[in-house]
Amino acid sequence: MTDRIPRSRLVAPWVRTRLRAAPGAALALALLVAVTAFLAAALPRAVDRYGDAGLRRAMEAAGADRVTVRMTAPQPAFGLSQQEREAALRGAALSAYQAEILDLTRRFLPVDPGQSSYGVRTAEDEEMSEPWLPRPDGLPARLGLAAQHGLAEHSRLRDGRLPRTPERVTAATSVVEGAVTTDTARDLNIEVGSVLRFPGVERGPLAVRITGVVEPRTPEGAYWSADPLLRTPTLTVLAGDPEMRQYWKGVLLLPPDAAPALLGTPMDPWRYWQPVPAVGDLHAHEASRLRSAVASLESGPGRQRVRAATSPDIATSTELDEVLAEYTRLRSAIGPMVAVAAFGTGTVAAVVLLMAGGLAADRRRGELTLLRARGGSLRGLAGRLLAETAVVVVPAAGAGLAAAWFLLPDARPAHAVAAAATVAVLACLALPLRAVAAHRAVRVHAAREDAATARPSRRRTVAELTLLALAVGAVVALRTRGTSDGADASGDQLVSLAPVLVAVIAAFVLVRLYPLPLRGLARPAGRLRGVVGPLSLARAGRSSGSAVLPLLALLTALTTAAFGGSVLTGVAEARDRAAVLTVGADARVESLHALPSTLAERVRGVPGVRDVTAVGISYNARPLDGEQTVPVAGVDPADYAELARQTGVGAFDREALAAQRSPGPPESAGAAKPQESAESPGTQDSHGSPQPVPALASPDVAERYGTRPFLVRMEDGSSVTVRIALVRERTPAVSGAVFLVVDRSALSARAARPTALLATGAPDGAALRRAAGTGPTVQIRAEERAGYVDSPLQSGAERVYTAAVAAGAGYAVLALLLTLLRAAPERAALLARLRTMGLTRAQGRRLLVLESLPQSLLAALGGTLTAWATIRLLAPGIDLTTIAVPATTSPPGRAALHTDWVSLLVPALVVVALTVGIAVAQAWWTSRRGSVRELRVGDAR
Q1: SS3 letters for 507-570?
Q2: Computed over its alpha carbons, how large is the radius of gyration of the chain?
Q3: What are phi and psi of 176, to 5 degrees?
Q4: Cβ distance 585 to 732 under 8 Å?
Q5: Is residue 216 left, alpha or beta, with left meaning phi > 0 and alpha meaning psi from -120 to 50?
Q6: Closest CA to 578 of 183, 886, 926, 157
Q7: Contact, 356 vs 905, CB < 8 A?
Q8: DSSP assignment of 158-216, as one string?
Q9: Hey, is 813 helix, strand or coil?
Q10: What are φ and ψ of residue 426, in 5° steps?
Q11: Closest to 385 measured CA to CA, from 363, 414, 418
């Protein structure tokens, strides 16, 4: 008896058979899914990475003095005994409080205990009488005292030894040891052995003997930078001094247990504890929670817990919440821009995956039709196709996710996994769903769907109207609220989907309109003599009527590319404008005091400098002897008018500003009601009577002081009578929006001395700084411009946007290739048949080119119009100012979105050129192969 072979051995598994039958198609699908999954998973991880880096940079740029959480307590109450007050300032009591504060703060914020500090600091600085201390403008230095713990761990000894407290220090102690940093020692001429005396209360002066000079190990760390005076003294302008005199201000360092000696001085010692956030543990997606935590520590449950565990008189203050708020505003403004590119690229990628599934279904139409004719069920057919696709797609998606995980570490995993899983699900379902839709009914031949004769169904009409309603809602929302509304706008994904929805609607509209010109040209084309024109038009009309997906891919890619190019161009222009307004020219050399008379010639000799304009600026001039100050710039009208013309900032006629000309009405609106002014000498006419000096003013100044003559008191005590003759929004000499500009010849000799030099050209920054010396500050417009993109949040968003647009363009090209690949066998067979009928190779090339031109022109023109319309529709609701310039920079006005024609036209031309090139290449390749072979291939298909 013959053994029966089990049925499982007689029938080969479906999946293995199909993969072996078409390994190339399986490999291509795996590659497409792997790349798409990688891009989908990489996007959220890249956003997390540049968001975290941007938050850290924002914290570093803000400085430790702003982000440190300061918890302070006044000196112990006078109702306590002297011993209790002294014990409260010693290291043991402060250290116990520090441990409690750090433990409680960690519940709200990640804390860096190594950089957190605590100690005792004098609230008041004392004028020092030591004659060897520097007095730059004749004013004595003012010094404070600080007993901060951890000096040995955070510094290196450069000279002498660290200060000690060999005996028990009390409020009556008259001599203590101290130390200074290397910067303090250098700037204040302090050295080991120096003695500085501070006044006492009901006792003699407190003498601080310097025993060591230390160098900070990490000067930029919060231990030294939370209070920068601990590390570096600073020159401070005397408040209210018209001559802007300066004096030195610094701090001496005491050992921790020497703090009780401060109770015997009038300098009001206070205790402090300064927890520092661990910058490396902060994440952008937690910004809202961090702000709530800071608010809790400042005036909420967190502060109550700290007070309960330590002292009821502790006060908490920090600017960390402001830093987080500034970062959140910037991130909220950038988020929608990135979302636009992400949605656009995601839409194109999804279309390509669906087209790949549709191409596979069309390639296997005969096989699937035969299976259905032999009794195969839709459920069984879909299940087999799903299993077959999943075997290829799931490992490929996993590989793409792993690559994104490896190349972009340190990011949240959930979003990346969800994105890769979405790609895998879409790729797995594309083929089964397309097959089920095409083979719902059992039939051998399917009706042809020509573009010229196809009629949209009711379901399609309903879907199009639904998408139209969504697109209109998104556009209205964006125009009404804009992208600068903070978190609400960034959280509204419908707003970011607006460009994609507009492209979707345009695709449906164009597909509906596409048959109309084909039908209209069919009869006239039939009267032509040549065969190529009518035949190509007929072939274009016989293309598939379901061309929505490839057209949608091209329109979305073109719209996203044009939108992205316009955004980047608008940002670049806003940064250029902001840099010009900040510097006033291509370079600026400025000082608080008058510049040397020879400096202008030295600056002119710097390589790259074309011209130099000298300006004397008095920032504290007072119109009408009032309390409000207005910057007044004294200029040479001819030179300054040329500078304003070259920079494009507030150009004016030089004759209108000359002091000898009688002023007329202002050239620009903005002057308010006339206002009487006090009689004062200005320039004088030939009879000696006061003659007002014409002035150029900002709109705010013109509105405040009117058009009649008024007195302006300069910083040197002199005065000048001016009359506003010109009104401009901005001027090169003053970076702010409040100013007066007058002819320097009408000012006193002291007020007219140049304090700033504005240079045009392309100056060498290093050479310019050498020529300027150490006193004046030097600003270079190119450096200022580059500084606007130093935030990883801005630069990272731009890179992600550029990468997303590039990926979208790549997918659009792939969609175009898939469209042409779908029709390639039919075209090859057609050319072979026509060659047997006498068609030449040149005619074959023209036929394929002319056949593909209508669709490519449709995509190019439609994409251009769609992108232009999208930008015009969305521009009023998009403000690029926050993205372009930092919050600390004076904005150049609203940076609005406008059309960038290069980004609008170049991608459309590339689509046409690529389509024509592929058609020519296909015709050339077909002509190289024999007609008999092509006929056999075409007939077989």
Answers
A1: HHHHHHHCHHHHHHHHHHHCCCCCCHHHHHHHHHHCCECCCHHHHHHHHHHHHHHHHHHHHHHH
A2: 38
A3: -135, 160
A4: yes
A5: beta
A6: 886
A7: no
A8: EEE------S---TT--EEEEEEEHHHHHHHT--TT-EEEE--SSS-PEEEEEEEEEEE
A9: helix
A10: -65, -45
A11: 363
Q: Which residues pair with 609 in a beta bridge?
A: 761
User: Does residue 446 sit in helix, strand or coil?
Assistant: coil
Would you place residue 735 in the very low, low, confident or very high pLDDT band (cuts 50, 70, 90)? confident
Q: Which two tokens stand for residue 410?
A: 């340190």
- The alpha-helical segments, DSSP class H, found in 584-676 are 599-604, 637-647
Q: Residue 680: how many CB atoms within 10 A of its CB? A: 18
CB 575 within 8 A of CB 789: yes
Q: Using DSSP bridges, classify how beta strands 683-684 and 690-691 pair: parallel, antiparallel or unpaired.
A: antiparallel
Q: Which residue has the tokens 């006090």?
A: 678
CA within 13 Å, CB half, 896: 12
Asked if 102 and 159 touch (Cβ cutoff 8 Å), the reply is no
| Length of the chain, in residues | 941
Distance of CA 45 to the CA centre of its chain: 17
Answer whether 795's CB lies under 8 Å from 572's CB: no
Check: CB of residue 174 under 8 Å from CB of residue 205.
Answer: yes
Provide the 3-class DSSP secondary structure of residue 711: strand
What is d(CA 589, CA 607) in angstroms, rounded to the nearest whole number? 15
Helix 515-525 vs helix 532-541: angle between axes, to the nearest 10 degrees? 150
The per-residue pLDDT for 493 is: 67
* Residue 657: DSSP 8-state: G
542's tokens: 């016989």
- The confidence band for 527, taking pLDDT boundaries of 50, 70 and 90, is low
Helices (H) and strands (E) in the chain, counts: 31, 23
Residue in this structure with the two tokens 């804009």, named with its chain if needed: 482
- How far apart, in whole angstroms, are the C-alpha atoms of residue 14 and residue 886? 60
**pLDDT interval class at 908 (50, 70, 90):** confident
Nearest CA-CA partner of 532 in 837, 821, 826: 837
Name the pTM for this structure.
0.78
DSSP 791: S
Q: Does an H or E element contain 777, and which? A: strand 777-780
Enter the tokens of residue 544: 């598939």
- The span from the first CA to the last CA of the chain, in angstroms, equals 46
What average pLDDT score do residues 623-638 get? Answer: 85
Taking alpha carbons only, the member of 243, 263, 242, 245 closest to residue 254 is 263
> Does residue 560 contact residue 345 with C-beta atoms inside 8 Å?
yes
Checking phi first, is residue 289 left (phi over 0); if not, alpha (psi -120 to 50) or beta?
alpha
* DSSP conformation letters of 39-87: HHHHHHHHHHHHHHHHHHHHHHHH-HHHHS-EEEEPSPPTTS-HHHHHH
Helix (H) or strand (E) holding 249: strand 246-253
For residue 930, what pLDDT is reported?
52
Q: Report residue 473 CA to chain centroid gap.
A: 27
Two tokens at 170?
Answer: 């009390």
| Least confident piece of the model among 293-307, 362-376, 409-423, 768-782 | 362-376
- HSE-CB at 123 with a 13 A cutoff on CA atoms is 11
- Residues 264, 75 contacting (CB under 8 angstroms): no
SS (H, E, C) 719-770: EEEEEEEEECCCCCCCCCCCCEEEEHHHCCCCCCCCCEEEEEECCCHHHHHH
Name residue 221's amino acid.
Answer: G
Partners of residue 683 on adjacent β-strands: 691
Average pLDDT in the chain:
81
Please check whether residue 428 is in contact with residue 386, taking contact to mean a CB–CB distance below 8 angstroms: yes
525 vs 760, which has greater pLDDT? 760
Written as six digits, the tokens of 35 are 């790349």
As a whole number of angstroms, the distance between CA 148 and CA 140 comes to: 25
C-beta separation of 364 from 381 below 8 A: no
